[in-house]
Write a structure and sequence with these properties.
This protein is mainly beta. It folds into two domains: 419 residues, YVTN repeat-like/Quinoprotein amine dehydrogenase (Methylamine Dehydrogenase, Chain H, 7 Propeller); 41 residues, no CATH class. The longest helix has 12 residues. The radius of gyration is 24 Å and the shape is globular. The two termini are 25 Å apart.
Length: 497
């Protein structure tokens, strides 16, 4: 349903030539993970061995070490003049459009220009002031920024004017912001629409909203946006914030310590949210986005972060490595397999997925071991042409960070199958004039009865949950019990059939 409604599944995301890795005090790295020419094979993959046999042999000969990356210390150019902000700290990354957004602890939010990284006409490929340190300001001070999230990894511009003859749906104003969690300030919202308008003279970022009612959001460490709601992991637990009016956010619900033990990460797909805490992964029914309900728990000894890809969830499991959950039925999710490459992956902090040339890859921030690239599927895997083949993980490449840096976070790839959010707001351009996705009311009709109950499917043709009209089903069962001939039952065609 998530695929059908175009809400995205996380499975087809595009990571591309560079995988962006945050390394805490060691700044950030743009690691080259594919060949530059076509086909753009991921280095070390099965396609790489076929399309670039000499390069592949050289890669294997050098113990599958990735050779090239571009680093940045993680501070703004003007901060070299100040002792206070010289210490960099990259705790969270999100690539969107031409920019990389980073939560940098005491440095707050920093934004890096990574456009045309292979074609820049000057020596510094990653820069914080492509125009001039005086002509723009691509940072916002916060007390201690811990995470950053974009409501979408593509870049719709809510401030762009629309011509009437195009019949375009307006972009919701929440997409004008980047959302930052701060350990002390809670939720900080920064308008970054100026970075989308093509005008470099107005790129002076300011915080628009600071939201922390009664210090409820203190200790915030993670955030994800689902429709017009922000799900935040805080000291208080999982806090759901309504951002339908971005400048006037409000708290909808709090799932406290009776359910969650120090939540660390949260991800949402269609009707379910998955939260990592000290006890493992907790599953929540989010049919009502404002009121998540706990429905299931999966024991994982060290669940640091989670990524959802169709019917599987990938958990960065610390010393256990990559823990893969089967979430075909989220309310009965279970550990499908644990992969650590023979003990090599033993400090997993974060994981993101990307698909390249019909093969699926996991990019794992493996702490002291650096970046790990794990091939999950390939054309040789039985069932690979299906919707969600069971992954067969294989470690194909590694990038150890310089100066004994620790890989802490990975930037999410571009969502290629997400055109509408969970609240029915269009976020992608459609091919025909006036074309649009289903809105919230229309989407609801696709999976819920008029009385609000969910559609169900069953192998039992007499299962009452499978029919929209219980009173019609009752009449059918009575007619069948009374042995009334089908021609005389006077029932709707779908039931008679």
């Amino acid at each position: 349903m998530s695929q059908l409604l175009m809400q995205g599944t996380g499975y087809t995301n595009f990571v591309g030539r560079y995988c962006w890795v945050g390394a805490g005090e060691h700044g950030l790295e743009g690691v080259v993970v594919t060949e530059q020419s076509e086909p753009q094979a991921v280095i070390g993959s099965s396609l790489h061995s076929i399309a670039y046999p000499e390069n592949y042999k050289d890669h294997v000969k050098h113990h599958r070490e990735l050779k090239h990356s571009h680093e940045h210390p993680g501070r703004d150019i003007v901060e070299t003049l100040s002792l206070k902000y010289r210490k960099p700290e990259i705790l969270s990354l999100q690539h969107r459009g031409e920019f990389l957004y980073a939560a940098c602890g005491e440095g707050g939010l920093r934004v890096f220009d990574i456009a045309f990284i292979d074609h820049k006409a000057f020596s510094e490929r990653i820069t914080t002031a492509p125009v001039s340190p005086i002509g723009q300001r691509l940072y916002v001070r916060t007390k201690f920024a811990t995470a950053v999230a974009a409501p979408t990894t593509i870049a719709p511009d809510p401030t762009r004017t629309h011509r009437p003859e195009n019949f375009e749906s307006p972009v919701h104003p929440l997409y004008a912001y980047i959302y930052v969690t701060d350990k002390y300030e809670g939720l900080v919202m920064v308008s970054v629409a100026t970075l989308l308008d093509g005008n470099p003279s107005n790129n002076f970022l300011e915080r628009d909203v600071t939201f922390n009612p009664n210090n409820l959001l203190c200790g915030a460490t993670a955030i994800t946006i689902a429709g017009t709601y922000a799900y935040m992991c805080c000291d208080a637990g999982l806090v759901v914030v309504d951002i339908n009016e971005p400048k006037h956010p409000r708290v909808c619900s709090v799932i406290g310590h009776e359910t969650l033990k120090h939540p660390k990460s949260v991800a949402v797909q269609f009707r379910y949210a998955f939260v990592c805490d000290e006890e493992g992964v907790k599953v929540f029914d989010t049919t009502e986005l404002s009121q998540p309900m706990h429905v299931h728990s999966v024991l994982v000894h060290e669940a640091n972060s989670i990524y959802l890809g169709r019917t599987y969830a990938y958990v960065a499991g610390g010393h256990e490595g990559l823990v893969i959950l089967d979430i075909t039925n989220p309310e009965q999710a279970f550990v499908d397999q644990v992969y650590n490459a023979g003990g090599a992956i033993n400090d997993a902090h974060d994981v993101k997925l990307g698909i390249t040339n019909v093969s699926q890859f996991a990019y794992v921030a493996d702490g002291k071991n650096g970046l790990r690239v794990v091939q999950l599927t390939s054309p040789e895997l039985p069932g690979n042409d299906g919707f969600s083949p069971r992954p067969n993980p294989c470690l194909i490449a590694t990038r150890k960070l310089p100066k004994k840096g620790h890989a802490l976070c990975i930037s999410r790839g571009v969502d290629r199958d997400r055109a509408v959010d969970e609240s029915g707001n269009q976020i992608a351009v459609f091919g025909r004039v006036g074309a649009r996705p289903l809105n919230k009311a229309e989407m609801t009709k696709m999976h819920r009865h008029p009385d609000g109950n969910l559609y169900q499917v069953s192998d039992d043709p007499f299962d009452r949950r499978s029919y929209q009209f219980p009173e019609v089903l009752k009449s059918y069962l009575q007619a069948r019990e009374n042995k009334i001939p089908p021609a005389e039952r006077n029932l709707p065609p779908i039931i008679s059939k």
